[in-house]
Amino acid sequence: MLVSTKLTIYHIRFILYCMNKNKKNPLIIFSLLWIYVILFFPSDVDGCTMILAGKDATADGSVLLAHNNDLPDNIASLIQIIPRQKHEPGKMIIFKNGLKIPQVAQTFRMLMMNCYYGFSEGDAVAINEYQVAIAGGMALKEDQNRDAQEADPLIKTGVSGYIRYIALQRSKTARECVEIIGNMHSTYGISYPSGVGVADPNEVWYIEAGGGKCWAAQRVPDDAYLAVANGYRIGVVDFNDKKNFIYPPYLKKFAIKKGLWKANQKVFHFARIFGGKKQTENNYYNARRVWRVQQLLTPSLEQDPNAFTHPVMLKADKKITIPQLIGILRDYYKGTSYDVSKNILRQSGEKERAIGVFHTVHTDVIQLRNDMPPEIGAVIWAGVSSSLTTPYIPYYLGIKEIPSPYGVAGPQFDNNSAYWHFRTLTTLLELRFSALIKEILPVWQTMEGRLFSLQNTVEKTALELYKNDKEAARDFLTFYTNGLSLKALQMAKELKKKIKTHLAQTSNKTKK
Question: What is the CA 446 to chain-centroid distance, rounded?
Answer without folding.
Answer: 24
